Amino acid sequence: MGRWHDEPARSGPYASGMDGTGPGPERGPTDPGDELLDVVDEQDRVVGQATRREVRRRRLLHRFSSVLCRDGAGRLYVHRRTDDKDVYPGMYDMAAGGVLAAGETYLEAARRELAEELGVVGPEPRFLFRHRYRGRENPSWSALFEVTWDGPVHPQASEIAWGGFLTLEELAARLDQWPFCPDALEIYRRWRAGRY
Length: 196
What we know:
Layout: E1 36-40, E2 46-51, H1 52-58, E3 62-70, E4 76-81, E5 92-93, E6 96-99, H2 106-118, E7 126-133, E8 140-148, E9 160-166, H3 168-174, H4 182-193
Parallel strand pairs: 3-8
Antiparallel strand pairs: 1-2, 3-6, 4-5, 4-9, 7-8
């Protein structure tokens, strides 16, 4: 395992670069908690809308997209979320992703999140499977996509505190060492087991 894979030590409240200067499309000056999301039922049908804040507060069933970003050698981009995220702050994730805005498709969100979070534009996300996560904190329907990218990654500083490509073996060794987002971990394990 190379040294460049190891996360640098944090120091100070903004050591991760949470200054909002990361690349990617801007969503505007509004509070992310005011973003309107679709609320769905157990069959993933839209039954209403609520703000992100309300979805989090009431733990409403909603949608998100995840994208596994792999390089040509098969390594997977893994990152640690910033400490000010509204769900799973400071935890690790093996996919770029986020909630779907009201009316947005899984594929549209996958493209948007890949561009916003990693600065990756161009490769078309390949759909792998949909997943129903039943965790108490973030009940959701999601779609998992995958891209292969050998270009530069430009992590969005307001979303990602650290990131790097890891082999699947290196990632496996860290699953018990680093705190991973439980929904991402469940989806990752399903992907690795080929259960789709």
